[in-house]
């Protein structure tokens, strides 16, 4: 099973991912888990992160850096782990591209989110379950420190609108978690959703 964690910057999903990893990896459960993330720590991921910190990076070039990282992530990590029977939990995945580059490419290509989805569709492996950490863009920008172009409230509001659209396309795959709650409550919700999906609840 492939589980992804999605949300705007400052939604707290990385903290949840770290807690899940601490609790579930390294034995102690009957299941095997692979915890992973995008951008990855490969050189493709490093290139994508470098672009992210560049204010005037070309958004189309940036799309393909993140997409190259995804292709490598799929073949090197995600597919082998799924083939081995692991539950894969990824902090960000394809929906991050649809939501973020879908927003960044506004005015560059017609119907940007559909374009980005179309680029992935023939070869990606869609998630089975997506935990969507929902927080308002002002809180997200404030929590993340607004240190780069993606962490600005106005941009995050476009990203959030794209996530909402994606939820409407796949209502069965997305489970919304109220990320304005305390970190403990957010983690509890995430644990419950995951246990229910895995049939452990
Ligand atoms: P993030 O998970 O916030 O990592 P960190 O907190 O370590 O910087 O992801 C980095 C940023 O990259 C985030 O602002 C979202 C953005 N991003 C995209 O724009 N497209 C993508 O495809 C991915 C995976 C991330």
Brief overview, please?
This protein has 201 residues and is an alpha/beta fold.
What does this structure look like?
This protein is α/β, with parallel strands linked by helices. The chain has helices spanning 13-24, 43-52, 59-83, 94-104, 112-120, 137-144, 153-169, 183-198; strands at residues 2-7, 33-37, 87-91, 129-134, 174-178. Strands 2-3-1-4-5 form a five-stranded parallel sheet, sandwiched between helices. The structure holds thymidine-5'-diphosphate. Thymidine-5'-diphosphate binds at residues 9, 14, 38-39, 52, 66, 91-92, 96-97, 100-101, 150.
CATH level-3 fold name? Rossmann fold
How do the strands line up in the largest sheet? 2-3-1-4-5
The CATH architecture would be: 3-Layer(aba) Sandwich
Low-confidence stretches: none
Domain tally? 1
**Number of helical runs?**
8
Overall pLDDT: 96
- Rg, Cα atoms, Å: 16 Å
Bound molecules: thymidine-5'-diphosphate
Order of helices and strands: EHEHHEHHEHHEH
Proportion of residues in extended strands: 5-15%
Portion of residues within helices? 40-55%
Class, according to the CATH hierarchy?
Alpha Beta
Q: Structural class, from helix and strand content?
A: alpha/beta
DSSP strand tally: 5
CATH superfamily: P-loop containing nucleotide triphosphate hydrolases
Shape: globular
Q: Please give the largest β-sheet.
A: 5 strands, parallel
Instruction: Please give the alpha-carbon distance between the first and last residues.
Output: 16 Å
